[in-house]
C-alpha cells in the first residue's frame, strides 16, 4: 500500500528534510566551508537525505519524524542545561540519552546519491523565452538519443550501453532540478557498471542553456503526457511571459497577473470568445506573425511575445506544429498552475477539459472526450472553476502531487 502522499505530516516532514539540508548548505557556504558552483553553493557530500522512498514507506517516515522530534527535544533540553546550573548534570544526561532512544530510520531508506548541484534552484522561472531556446538546443543536441518526443527512441538510442529513459513521463518531476542540471552538463554513469552512460555537455552549454533545457524538457513532457493520456499527469505552470493589459500602460511581467484566474487564448479563425468577469482573459500573439487572425475583443491583456505561443504549444503537445494551437484555450488557477484546456472547436467548457486534477482520478479517463458529460447545475466554466478551487494543486517534495 502506498501512503496517501498528501498526508499533512508527511508533506511537512519532506519539507523539513529539504529545507533543513538547503539551510545547512547555505550556512556552510556563508562561513566559507563550501564553494559556489554555477553561482550557487555546491553540495559537498556524495549522498543526501530525500523523501522519495518515504512516500511509499510509512514506517520509515514515522521513525524519521519521531527521531527528528526527539533530536529537537534533546537540543531544547541541552539549552536548558546551559541556563539552569543546578540541574545541569541531569539535563545534559537526558539530552544525551534522547538521541539514543530515538527510533532511527534505516539510512538506506532516506539516502539518495547526490550531485554537487542537488540543491541548486533553477533561475529561469519557467520563462517562455527559456523554454523556446531550450527546445531549440534539445533539437540540436539531444534528439539523436532521446527522440523528438523525448520517449527515448532517437536513431542512436539502440547503440547506447543504457537505453535512454523516457523523458516524456514523470521522471523529470521525480528528480531534483539540480541533479538534472548536473547530469545534462556532466553526464551520467551506469549505476552498476560505472561506465559512462549519458554524455555531458559542459563544453557546449552554459549553465543558462542547461536550465533552459530542463524547462523545455518539462514542457515537452507535459505535452506528450497530454497527447498520450489526455491529462497533465504532473502539474505544469503557465510559462512566464510579458503582457500588456488594458488600463495598465506599458508591458508588465505575467507575474503581475498571479493571484487571478486566467483564461489564456491562442486566437484562431472562427472563434470569438465572449468577455467573462470570472477570469482575466489573455490573448497570445501568433507565433507565425500572422496578423490576419482576429483580434480578441474580450481580451483584458495581450501577450505580444511569440515565445509565449510557442511555449504553450509545447505544453499542449503541439511541438511539431505550433500553428495547431490556434483556437485552444487554457484556464490557469490563482497559483499559476495550468488546469484546463479546451480544444479549438469546443463550444463550451466541459468536465474533461480539466486536464490537471487530483490523483484519485489522475488515471487516464476511459470516457471519450467527445461524449463528455456537460455539467448542468453551473455552466461549463463555472463547474470547472468550482472543481479547480476544490482540488488545489499540492506540493510534495520528491514528486508534485495534484
Ligand atoms: C549519446 C546519447 C545521448 C545524448 C546525445 C543525450 N543523452 Fe541524455 N541520456 C542518455 C542515456 C543513455 C541516459 C540514461 C543514463 C543512465 O540512466 O545511466 C540519459 C539520461 C538523461 C536524463 C535523465 C537524467 C536522470 O537524472 O535520470 C536527462 C534529463 C537527459 N538524459 C537529458 C539530455 C539532454 C538535455 C541532452 C541534450 C543536451 C541529452 N540528454 C543528450 C543518452 C543521451
TrEMBL record:
Q: Which SUPFAM superfamilies match?
A: Cytochrome c (SSF46626)
**Molecular function (GO) terms listed?**
electron transfer activity; heme binding; metal ion binding
Q: Which residues cross the membrane?
A: 64-84, 89-107
- Source species, domain of life: Bacteria
UniProt keyword terms in alphabetical order: Heme, Iron, Membrane, Metal-binding, Transmembrane, Transmembrane helix
Domain annotation Cytochrome c: ranges: 129-221
UniProt xrefs under Gene3D superfamilies: Cytochrome c-like domain
The record, for Pfam families, names: Cytochrome_CBB3 (PF13442)
Query: What name is this protein filed under?
Result: Cytochrome c553
Q: Which organism is it from?
A: Pseudacidovorax intermedius
- Upper taxonomic classification of the species? Bacteria, Pseudomonadati, Pseudomonadota, Betaproteobacteria, Burkholderiales
Amino acid at each position: 500500500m502506498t501512503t496517501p502522499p498528501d498526508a499533512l505530516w508527511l508533506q511537512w516532514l519532506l519539507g523539513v528534510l529539504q529545507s533543513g539540508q538547503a539551510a545547512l548548505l547555505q550556512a556552510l557556504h556563508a562561513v566559507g566551508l563550501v564553494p559556489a558552483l554555477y553561482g550557487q553553493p555546491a553540495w559537498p557530500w556524495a549522498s543526501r537525505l530525500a523523501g522519495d522512498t518515504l512516500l511509499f514507506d510509512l514506517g520509515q517516515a514515522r521513525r524519521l519524524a519521531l527521531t527528528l522530534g526527539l533530536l529537537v527535544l534533546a537540543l531544547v533540553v541541552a539549552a536548558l542545561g546551559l541556563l539552569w546550573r543546578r540541574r545541569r548534570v541531569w539535563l545534559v544526561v537526558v539530552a544525551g540519552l534522547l538521541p539514543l532512544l530515538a527510533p532511527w530510520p534505516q539510512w538506506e531508506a532516506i539516502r539518495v546519491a547526490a550531485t554537487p548541484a542537488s540543491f541548486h534552484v533553477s533561475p529561469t522561472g519557467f520563462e517562455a523565452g527559456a523554454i523556446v531556446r531550450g527546445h531549440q538546443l534539445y533539437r540540436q543536441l539531444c534528439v539523436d538519443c532521446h527522440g523528438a518526443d523525448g520517449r527515448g527512441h532517437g536513431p542512436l538510442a539502440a547503440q547506447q550501453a543504457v537505453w535512454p529513459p523516457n523523458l516524456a513521463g514523470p521522471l523529470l518531476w521525480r528528480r531534483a532540478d539540480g541533479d538534472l542540471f548536473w547530469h545534462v552538463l556532466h553526464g551520467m554513469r551506469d549505476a552498476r557498471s560505472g561506465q559512462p552512460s549519458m554524455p555531458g555537455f559542459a563544453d557546449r552549454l552554459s549553465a543558462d542553456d542547461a536550465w533552459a533545457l530542463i524547462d523545455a524538457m518539462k514542457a515537452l513532457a507535459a505535452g506528450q503526457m497530454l497527447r498520450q493520456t489526455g491529462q497533465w499527469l504532473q502539474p505544469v505552470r503557465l510559462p512566464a511571459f510579458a503582457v500588456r493589459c488594458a488600463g495598465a500602460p506599458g508591458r508588465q511581467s505575467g507575474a503581475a497577473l498571479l493571484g487571478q484566474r486566467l483564461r489564456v487564448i491562442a486566437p484562431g479563425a472562427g472563434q470569438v470568445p465572449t468577455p467573462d468577469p470570472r477570469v482575466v482573459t489573455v490573448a497570445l500573439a501568433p507565433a507565425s506573425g500572422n496578423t490576419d487572425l482576429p483580434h480578441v475583443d474580450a481580451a483584458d491583456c495581450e501577450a505580444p511575445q511569440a515565445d509565449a505561443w510557442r511555449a504553450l504549444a509545447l505544453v499542449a503537445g503541439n511541438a511539431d506544429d505550433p500553428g495547431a494551437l490556434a483556437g485552444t484555450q487554457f484556464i490557469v488557477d490563482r497559483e499559476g498552475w495550468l488546469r484546463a484546456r479546451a480544444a479549438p472547436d469546443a463550444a463550451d467548457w466541459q468536465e474533461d477539459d480539466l486536464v490537471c486534477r487530483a490523483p484519485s482520478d489522475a488515471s487516464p479517463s476511459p470516457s471519450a472526450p467527445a461524449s463528455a458529460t456537460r455539467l448542468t447545475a453551473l455552466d461549463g466554466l463555472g463547474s470547472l472553476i468550482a472543481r479547480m478551487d476544490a482540488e488545489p494543486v499540492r506540493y510534495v517534495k520528491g514528486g508534485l502531487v495534484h
